[in-house]
Amino acid sequence: MTGPALKVALRTYPYTEALKTGAVSVPGATLEFEEVKPHIAAFRRMVRDLAFDICEIAPTTYIIARAYGVPIIALPVFFVRRFHHNGLVVRPEAGIEKPKDLEGKNFGVRAYSVTTGVWKRGLLQNEYGVDIDKVNWWVDDEEHVEALRLPANVHHVAEGSSLVSMMAAGKLDAACTGDAGIGRAGKPGEGWNDAGPALPENLRELFTNPGQLDREVYSRNGVYPIHGTLAIKESLLAERPDLASRLFDAFSAAKAPYLAALRAGTATGKQAEKDMALMKVVGDDPIPYGLDANRASIEALIRYGHQQGLLPKAYTAEEMFMQF
Q1: How many beta carbons lie within 10 A of that of residue 152, not counting itself?
Q2: In this predicted model, what pLDDT tens digit does every residue of 272-293 receive, in sequence order?
Q3: 157-175 confidence digits (pLDDT tens)
Q4: Closest CA to 173 of 213, 207, 132, 204
């Protein structure tokens, strides 16, 4: 008996496509996929309404939600990986030449708990000694977890304004780029990031050699930032305790052909290009699954979340992720 179909929100990657087409199945379970665009909306629906049985969710959103009692738990399966020395731009006239110069300045990030922002603040604080409590963090979106209370140095833009308009008006000194900052116009919604907004042309990256710095920091601490994990309703696992291991095995099986193609140099497409570039830094598996393979990254994200006032305590990796 397979029971009712499980409602799943998951983006399509080269390493999840086989699950979505049915080429790889989960024994004893039927997965019913719902496409959510933008997928960010699925994060909010999961942590606020438990709208899915299984959901790909931002790892920071997940650990905050679990810390605040949302009855979900995640498998140590991570769908997107990237380093964070790039994508941090500054206004030339702001006098920011080194990371410590961000203290006392105004920094834009879409939401304080957005995972990209957490990784960047963690990097600035732990590798470069920035006192993040001395930075004014400006946000123009709401946090996914409604119970979260933000530090006093986090400010919401005025009604009718945005990070983009603040940057254009010279009211921000620095910002994240892309969906986590000034690379989109408006809150997540249909077409929210189809076209990049107009920004000052003279913005420059804070770090001029991000790739080299990524390698140096990774060689020291082994932290390989995670983006996107697989959260499951705890009630579902209470009914079907063997489901977690079956899901982990199925996701690993779906990844295996893609990983083999990466290692053989035959994988193609934008994702493959990104992953092959990451392999030059992290080795022959750029999308590792499993708790021990990701322990340094999980522990770093939890530590950063606690440092930044997002978590009430420093949890262990085992408290947040199932062990596989």
Answers
A1: 7
A2: 999 999 999 999 999 999 999 9
A3: 999 899 999 999 999 999 9
A4: 204
Quick one: average pLDDT of 12-26?
97
Distance from the first to the final alpha carbon of the chain: 25
Q: CATH second-level architecture of 6-82+224-320?
A: 3-Layer(aba) Sandwich (3.40)
Residue 4's pLDDT is 83
**For residues 236 and 243, what is the distance between their CA atoms, to the nearest angstrom?**
8
Find out whether 110 and 176 touch, Cβ atoms under 8 Å: yes
pTM for the structure as a whole: 0.96
Domains 6-82+224-320 and 88-218 are alike in CATH topology: yes
Is the previous residue joined to 38 through a cis bond, with omega within 30 degrees of 0?
A: yes
pLDDT above 90 for 196: no
Q: In this prediction, what percent of the chain has a pLDDT beyond 70?
A: 99
- Identify the pLDDT of residue 154: 98
Burial group, residue 38, by CB count within 10 angstroms (0-12, 13-18, 19+) = middle
Q: Which residues contact 283 (CB under 8 A, 6 or more apart)?
A: none
CATH of range 88-218; options 3.30.450, 1.25.10, 2.60.40, 3.40.190? 3.40.190
Q: List Cβ neighbours of 97 (8 Å cut-off, separation of 6 or more).
A: none
DSSP per position, 278-307: HHHHH-S-SS--STGGGHHHHHHHHHHHHH
3 state SS of 121: helix
Q: How far apart are CA 263 and CA 231, in angstroms?
A: 28
Residue spans of the domains in the chain: they are 6-82+224-320, 88-218
